Amino acid sequence: MVVTKESRLKGRRGIYLLPNLFTTFGVFCGFYGIVASMSGHYSDAAFALFIAMLMDSFDGRVARMTNTTSDFGAEYDSLADIISFGIAPALIAYNWGALEQLGKLGWLAAFTYLVCGALRLARFNVMPETIEKKYFQGLPIPAAAGVVLGFIWFGEELGWDGSTLAVPVALVTVACGLLMVSNFRYNSFKEVDWKGKVPFVSLLLMVLIVIMVATNPPIVLFPAFTLYLISGPIVTFRQRSKLRAERRAERNKT
Fold first, then answer.
1. CA 136 to chain centre
2. Most CB atoms within 10 A, among 14, 212, 218, 224?
């Protein structure tokens, strides 16, 4: 049997470098955020986690653009997400809000967020491909991390003492965790055509948003993530109300 060079290449095991580099850098940012929070540098921790979100949005797109998607990359991305957007936000919130003041309720609040994030990722990974791509079922874990960390970064910007906000921090953390495992529908923005033509004013709007974020990230990002968080229940209830109205109209016709 003749073994060709092509067959040897096909049988060679390995991983794609470029998309996994983005994923690895996201893990680094998550780990750095934990270390920074242990030193009391909460703004740096929040900034690192927002960089991790950018890396998380890039790795999949880079893999698809370069045709380097793989099962290894998908599994590695999920493990990276639970570190950067599950463990890191839970520990940073626990440290900033001094949740040890609440006793068992404090660490249970952080653990609730973490385990809900893990369940959210597991549910997403086993979802059939026939599920509508336009919406996520439950709050995506990067967005949940964005709300928790945005709240902390926003508070640091305004000079709040996190140790006096143990109860609000615990409530925000638990709420984000429960929303991750909810059935609320969140827009995935996967239907946006990034290659298509758009009006010139759209480009100006994007430039304005970038300038606003660069000028004062916590003041812009926290309200943005909060609006996305509340959009899920609003969209879901509106769609259900519309569906009930359509069913009533059909019954009235018959």
1. 11
2. 218
